[in-house]
Amino acid sequence: MRAEATKMIQPAIGDDEQFERMSLGERLQHAVLVISFLTLVLTGLPIFFHQLPVLNWAFSVEGSFRLRGLLHRGAAIGLVCVSVYHLFWIITTARGRETFLQLMPVRKDITDAFESLFYNLGIMVWLRNHGFFVAFLQSHPYWLFQHPPRFDRYNFIEKFEYLAVVWGNMVMITTGFLLWYPVISARIFPMWVYEIVRVVHGFEALLALLSIAIWHMYNVHVNPEVFPMSKVWLNGKITGRELRLLHPLEYERIVAARTAQG
Amino acid sequence: MKITTQPLSSNKYGILLCFCVLVVFFVALQGVAAPSNEDCLACHGDKAATRANGSSIYVDKDVYAQSVHGNIGQECVACHSDLASVTDFPHAEKLPKAQCAACHEKIQQQYNEGVHARALSKMGLTVSASCGTCHRAHDIRPAGDPQSPVSRGNVPKLCAQCHGGIYDQFVKSVHGKDYLAGKTDVPVCTDCHGEHSIRGPGENESTVSAKHVAATCSRCHEDMRLARIYGLAGSRLSTYRGSYHGIAMNFGMTTVANCASCHGFHDILPSQDAQSSIHAANLSKTCGKCHLGAGENFALAKIHQVNPQADNVWAFWIKRFYVGLIWTIIGGFLLFISADIFARVRGRRQHSPVEGL
Known about the structure:
The complex is a heterodimer.
Chain A: H1 2-9, E1 18-20, H2 24-48, H3 54-58, H4 64-92, H5 94-103, H6 107-121, H7 123-129, H8 134-139, H9 156-180, H10 182-188, H11 191-222, H12 232-235, E2 237-239, H13 240-246, H14 248-261
Antiparallel strand pairs in A: 1-2
Helix pairs in contact in A: 2-4, 2-11, 4-5, 4-9, 9-11, 13-14
Chain B: H1 10-30, H2 37-44, H3 61-66, H4 76-79, H5 105-113, H6 115-121, H7 131-135, H8 155-160, H9 164-172, H10 174-180, H11 189-193, H12 213-221, H13 224-230, H14 236-241, H15 244-250, H16 259-263, H17 283-288, H18 308-311, H19 313-345
Helix pairs in contact in B: 9-10
């Protein structure tokens, strides 16, 4: 059914046609985020892993630890700037609002995640083939998860990453500011809270690093769909073929819009 | 009786000449016989003997005999080596100092690096401590001897001869009170400052420099035996090392707080003492030295956290929560990634832009 529908409307979008997925402004936001994030990680993790012997070598140059602190704060300002810009971009531009709304999680994202996982594992089909739940699966074929979920402009993976960045940024900027100004922090709350702030800043950073290193890097680099690298973050372009196969719902919306325009 | 005076034959003159040459040769070879201790004591054993200015030149030979040098039979000229070749006595009044370095070469080198030597050689002071100032001259005793001025019991008084103001501070401190009480475990000046190579706290190599003071204090304050005897809180160094101050200090940022920044040094007092820099009432002032405007909330933090769960239960559980959260989220990522790879390996993926994947 779905394949037929795709075939019917295929002529509206050619496989080689190029679509803008990330505008120049969005790519610049991403670039500032990448640079500030990497700088923050490189200059911040030595505090978290301060017992690593290699750090004694890394900070053997006079004044290098001071420079670490300056770079960390400088990159933090970069992160704050891009976050504030992003907020204004969402509020003030139509494209920003639209993108933000499309990135908001909906019920479908949760089912998409389950469908994707069970489809990939193929476990329900395997169970049916081995005589389990045969009657149930006969009457409820959905639970076989025989088709991968069909995604819109942003799939559950991308939405999760975006929300994780938003959440992480809020936590890191708040706790980071409090760590930057201990005197102001101590005016707001007792110092034992400061210790909690320090714990949160460190562990949230570790979580962010692991998320980027494992989840984001797999999805935009290692995944055979894009290996060795998705170039969207550089040229912002996505082909009609990629749109049709990776974002079929968006693809269909574009086709529908074109058909309506005639 | 006929007296015949026979002139010496040239032969006999030759023999005499040879004898004289030999004598001169041997004397020259051996040097003039150095004055023995008895020779010196001929004058210096006289209690009434004085220099031209009236100061005594008396040396008590019994005191010297009990000293570390007299004990092993060292000659006077072993130290006063410039007198070994003097034949004309009484010798000149003004003599070079005793040459300790002839035997104690390494210690002399250490001393030359220290602040006391440089005060004379570089800074142009006219008075500073040299060997004899601390060890004395003829009654030098080993440091283990309670009568020695450099014994543990006497070191603070010895240093106080010049550093009297510091001594007054020290004896009011927690260390000084125990020192006056005769406790031998207590640190005296040399335990923190070292001995011959004492350096100023501003010098990196100093045992009391910002970089090294934590290691110096922790020789006692990380010591379980002393902690048990005196009820000291243990793990002072390890808890400092884990703090931001300690981490930054470890990586060479010497402007952050070290032990002395908060606790003081000569005037260290326990936190219960109202005069202490770390007494709850004084903490905001102490922290405020660096953290300008530090309010009273600064006092509510436990700096040296030995037991994380008891010292800050919220921080402890939030840390636990994060560890669990990280394992859960990363575990979820790995599950999804593994499932994705599994599906691709089995060729089940259909809607992929890459053929066959």
